[in-house]
Structures are given as C-alpha cells and as structure tokens.
Amino acid sequence: MSFEDKDKAKEYWDENIKLVLSLLAIWAFVSFGCGVLFVDVLNEITFMGFKLGFWFAQQGAMYVFLILIAVYVRKANLLDKKYGVDE
Question: Is residue 33 pLDDT above 90, yes or no?
C-alpha cells in the first residue's frame, strides 16, 4: 500500500477518520443512549415480547455492533479502491 503523494495520503486518512468517528458515534448512541439513558422511554415499547430498552441493553446493541463492523468493512474497501490502495 503506497500513495503517490502526501496530499492523497492525508485525504485518505481524513476520510477514514471521519468514517470511524461517525460509526463510533452510532456505537455510543446505541450502547449508552439506548441501553442506559433512554431505557425508561424505550421500555414502554415491546419488541419480540421484551421491553425495548432491555432488549437493546442485552441483545440489540450486539446486533448493531455487528452491522457497524460490516458497514466499516464495506466502506473501507470502497475508500481503498477510491484511492488506489486496495489489495
């Protein structure tokens, strides 16, 4: 993996960091927001026989984390192709 110039490398890493920070923000909202802060509001909704706040704290967050990993892999591969540093 090599870049033609430092400007391209900086653009690549700026986009990569932006992607990571946006996915981390979603992760923080789901894990802390839905599992802790908004649990009382979400518990008023039933999902698959469970209160939604409880479900997010116990299982829902894990599903979201797996989806975030898949999204990162897809977006990172597209980013690599965009800058010509794919495998």
Answer: no
- Tell me the pTM: 0.81
Euclidean distance between CA atoms 27 and 41, whole angstroms = 19
The alpha-helical segments, DSSP class H, found in the chain are 6-28, 39-42, 52-55, 61-83
Helix, strand or coil for residue 40? helix
Query: 51 has which bridge partners?
Result: 46
CA distance linking residue 46 with residue 66, whole number of Å: 23
Cα dihedral 75→81→85→87 (10° resolution): 90
From the CB of residue 36, how many other CB atoms can be counted at a distance below 10 Å? 11
pLDDT per residue over 58-76, tens digit each?
Answer: 888 899 999 999 999 999 9
